[in-house]
Amino acid sequence: MKVYNTLSKQKEEFVPLEPGKVKMYVCGPTVYNYIHIGNARPMIVFDTVRRYLEYKGYEVNYVSNFTDVDDKIIAKALEEGVSAQEISSRYIEECKKDMAALNVMPATKHPLATEEIDGMVGMIKELIEKGYAYDVNGTVYFRTKKFDEYGKLSHKNLEDLQSGNRSLQVSGLEDKEDPLDFVLWKPKKEGEPSWESPWSAGRPGWHIECSEMSRKYLGEEIDIHAGGEDLVFPHHENEIAQSEACNGKNFAKYWLHNAFLNINNRKMSKSSGNFFTVRDIEEKYEPRVLRFFMLNAHYRSPLNFSEDLMDSAKASLLRIVTAVDNLKFLINKADIVEMTEQEQKEYEETTEYVKKFEESMEDDFNTADAIAAIFELVKFSNRTVGEGTSKAYLQALLNRILSLSSILGIEVEGEEEMLDSHIEKLIEDRQNARKNKDFALADQIRDGLLEKGIILEDTREGVKWKRA
Ligand code: AMP
Ligand code: ZN
Question: Relative to the CA of 39, which ligand 1 atom is closest?
Fold first, then answer.
């Protein structure tokens, strides 16, 4: 299996530190609002990575944090006149609901930054002892230049960074030793939440949170560290500096980053106001359409969001859903139980699509091609099944479509909204059955629909239907 590693800027063979196990950390959201669909992209793509690893038989320890103390949370709390904790716990709950709707599996552990302050203070102490950090009047900074490999992830060199930071140096606002040094601990301002520490009552910097939570729940060395591409610098670069300076070990073996979700070809972000929340999208589409839309692109390609693209994602997904529904329908009325020899041969042919699916996923999680393989399987299924097909063959095809779809976390079993066109197709089948005087079949179709809450009405203008 090949994965693209931001560290080496290459696809590398995936070899976990410990055979059969994968330790994976994904930077989670800062919780001061509903998540937008850009935030949903890393959740969906790395959940899919996890699902594929699990399908391959790895035991995945998946940790993803919530950043629940931050300037933006504090600002929102002031605005509403409530505590920062009230804001963060509210939006953590809402975020979990969105994740569930998008079929993102709960992490093995979702640590909250505010519950891990002791560990962070401990890590900062270690960094000070090792000479990698220093305290100036209650603020603790990381001594960036002391970490020789600084810049290795973002492929930036220190000279360029330094010239870019000169303005800071002359501004006189900072009392740090070097403009490249970054904050590990900052003293509180009036009215802010704070914790005791040897340096001041205050709170940790954002980067140290992930270094500590990753170490605590996964250990000093992990397999995969992931997040959106905006996190490469400075967040992940700083995490590497902190963790490797402190632990004296390589932090993460593979660094995976998703590209951005854009809107009208501009970055979707909260600060610029051009964003849709997952909730906004749910008003018009089922959340599984959003997941399907996202996985139709490779995770390292920028993805432009538009209603047209969502509509076409919805229509494509419907093709799978309809095929699944049709298989179930045929299974219910199949007379022949065992697979015929011909069917056995045909079923063997479908391993081709499974192979294609796996090869796509093994190539740096190419979900777009993996979905194409599912479509080929669906087409094959539609072509080879019919009235006289055996139950065993139908069931085997159904299982295969369901299992590949579930590796991508795509739910393809019918739900109301998706079924409109399928209902109409069944009504057409019923009309044909009546024409052929197969009244038993016609009744069976009508009863089947009724079971799903669809009521048919025969009127002079034709068959009308409504939901019960
Ligand atoms: P934040 O809450 O801003 O820290 O973001 C949480 C996660 O969402 C991070 O991994 C970000 O990189 C990612 N992210 C934010 N905006 C987008 C976007 N428009 N497209 C893709 N990923 C994003
Ligand atoms: Zn992080």
Answer: 8
Tokens coding 47: 């959940």
Is residue 2 within 8 Å of 57, Cβ to Cβ?
A: no
- Farthest-apart Cα atoms in the chain, separation: 91
Instruction: Give 212 Cα–ligand 1 centroid separation in angstroms.
Output: 20
Ligand nearest, relative to CA of residue 38: 1
pLDDT at residue 444 tops 90: no
Q: Residue 56 C-alpha to ligand 1 middle, in angstroms?
A: 28
Question: What's the pLDDT score for residue 418?
Answer: 41
Residues in contact with ligand 1 by the CB-under-6-Å rule are 27, 29-30, 38-39, 41-42, 227-228, 230-231, 258, 260-261, 267-269
Report residue 387: phi and psi, to 5°.
-55, -40
Query: Among 386, 462, 395, which residue's Cα sits nearest to residue 424?
Result: 462
Considering every ligand atom shown, identify the ligand nearest to the alpha carbon of residue 212 and give its number: 2
Kind of pairing between the strands at 303-305 and 454-459 = unpaired
DSSP state of 115: G
Q: Judging by beta carbons within 10 Å of its beta carbon (0-12, 13-18, 19+), is residue 231 exposed, middle or buried?
A: buried
Contact 228, 45 (CB under 8 A): no
Q: Ligand 1: which residue has its CA nearest to atom 21?
A: 260
Of 303, 313, 216, residue with least CA distance to 266: 303
202 contacts 188 by C-beta, under 8 angstroms: yes
Which candidate, 205, 250, 207, 258, places its Cα nearest to that of 229? 258
| pLDDT tens digit sequence for 21-37 | 999 999 999 999 999 99
Specify the pairing of strand 2-5 against strand 10-13: antiparallel
d(CA 197, CA 118): 9
pLDDT in tens, 323-351: 999 999 999 999 999 999 999 999 999 99
Q: In the Cβ-directed half-sphere of 261, how many Cα atoms lie within 13 Å?
A: 28
* Cα torsion through 448, 451, 455, 458, rounded to 10: 30
